[in-house]
Write a structure and sequence with these properties.
This protein is α+β, with helices and mostly antiparallel strands and 116 residues long. It has one domain: 2-Layer Sandwich (Alpha-Beta Plaits). It has a four-stranded antiparallel beta sheet. The radius of gyration is 15 Å and the shape is globular. Helices cover 34% and strands 28% of the residues.
Length: 116
C-alpha cells in the first residue's frame, strides 16, 4: 500500500495563476526525487447538497477557493526520503518572496492508504 501527503490551501482566486506556476515547479521537484504521483486541484463545486463543504470548513473569504492537493509515495519511509531531497533543492533555490496564499490557514497531513 502507498502513502499519501495531502493538503488543503485556501487561495484567493486572483492568485490562481501564480499558485499554478509554483505548483508546476513543485511537481517537477517531487517527481524528480521519486514521488509516484502529484496532483494540485482548484475548487470547482464547493457547495454540495449533502455533508459539510470545504468552503465552510476552510472558512473561505469572499473571492477565495480551495486547492486540494496530494503527493503519492511507496511508503512513509519513501516519503521521508523524497521530502528530504525536495527540501534540499528548495532551500538551495531560496524562499519565494511572496506566497500566493496564507500559510497559517494551510491544512496538511500524512495518510496510510486504506484502499487502492
Amino acid at each position: 500500500m502507498s502513502y499519501v501527503d495531502g493538503y488543503l490551501v485556501p487561495l484567493p482566486k486572483r492568485s490562481l495563476r501564480a499558485y499554478k506556476r509554483m505548483a508546476t515547479l513543485g511537481r517537477k521537484i517531487w517527481m524528480k526525487h521519486g514521488a509516484l504521483d502529484y496532483k494540485e486541484c482548484a475548487g470547482d463545486d464547493l457547495f454540495p447538497k449533502w455533508g459539510e463543504s470545504f468552503a465552510k470548513m476552510m472558512k473561505l473569504k469572499r473571492g477565495e477557493t480551495v486547492v486540494f492537493a496530494y503527493i503519492v509515495y511507496k511508503s512513509r519511509a519513501h516519503r521521508n526520503q523524497v521530502n528530504k531531497k525536495v527540501m534540499k533543492d528548495m532551500n538551495a533555490m531560496g524562499a519565494p518572496k511572496d506566497m500566493p496564499f496564507d500559510m497559517k490557514r494551510m491544512l496538511f497531513g500524512g495518510f496510510k492508504t486504506l484502499v487502492e
